[in-house]
Amino acid sequence: xxxxxxxxxxxxxxxxxxxxxxxxxxxxxxxxxxxxxxxxxxxxxxxxxxxxxxxxxxxxxxxxxxxxxxxxxxxxxxxxxxxxxxxxxxxxxxxxxxxxxxxxxxxxxxxxxxxxxxxxxxxxxxxxxxxxxxxxxxxxxxxxxxxxxxxxxxxxxxxxxxxxxxxxxxxxxxxxxxxxxxxxxxxxxxxxxxxxxxxxxxxxxxxxxxxxxxxxxxxxxxxxxxxxxxxxxxxxxxxxxxxxxxxxxxxxxxxxxxxxxxxxxxxxxxxxxxxxxxxxxxxxxxxxxxxxxxxxxxxxxxxxxxxxxxxxxxxxxxxxxxxxxxxxxxxxxxxxxxxxxxxxxxxxxxxxxxxxxxxxxxxxxxxx
Length: 368
Known about the structure:
Elements: H1 9-23, H2 30-44, H3 48-65, H4 68-84, H5 88-101, H6 114-128, H7 132-147, H8 152-168, H9 172-189, H10 195-208, H11 213-229, H12 236-249, H13 253-270, H14 276-289, H15 293-310, H16 313-329, H17 333-346, H18 354-367
Helix pairs in contact: 1-2, 2-3, 2-4, 3-4, 4-5, 4-6, 5-6, 6-7, 6-8, 7-8, 8-9, 8-10, 9-10, 10-11, 11-12, 12-13, 12-14, 13-14, 14-15, 14-16, 15-16, 16-17, 16-18, 17-18
């Protein structure tokens, strides 16, 4: 997994064979480990129906054996799978159960330490759901727990979770430090699976910091190509969305739209919906740049609807801001103000984040 990639054909072949051997042996505890490895193989390849089925098998096995650490990992597996499918409330529920039951390094399942990985996925889900302060606290806890373990792959994973949370929060200066640390860990320990995350995060920070954006775009492209070379499809729509937004920022709208079409095809194929609201919002931004205002409004409203279905309040806020700006330009300021005030009023924390600051500034502008 660490060298060839979690979605590599070698990984899948070995775990499939391990599972076959376990099922030939009566009551072997290694069955759970084989199932867990096969689960992450299918997850990383964005084969979510298979991953969800294996996660349920993990839960059934853990429940039958009354094995506490297995039950922890099973809840992590279910929560992780649910997160990528955009089922954010279910994801948070299962990830919180996993965290409540475990101590760092206590798991007997070697694939991932749920004490770290559950916190990592939970911090992302919390941010999406509109709890950025809670998300930041969970991410800090994730990094702290990982530092207690002398396990480079786990430290690399915690760095990814914290670094990409800064990406969500639009904090490039903080994200770049995590990118450098991740690059160092991947290089020192031969963790090829993690190098693409570092490359994409580094590219995003260059774009956001106003450096030569073309260099940042090339870094994102390089990271995506490396990720695909590992037979990994997990998070691909998300990475493609970041590339499309970067291309849009330098006026390459036609190319950005091609990338978004690829991302949406990937989403439709796999069912990975966690970033779908953002993809449709970016489609709307491109349509707006090209003067297609009706299509832009349709895309923004679609993004809002998907975000509401997922309880993804942060993505709903972003899409609502985009729509409100469009409506204001069309002389529909009251409509824009009401809809933005409604979603902004939902938030109870995170008012120092870039998105909420932008929302407050836009509300003030609409009120004048």
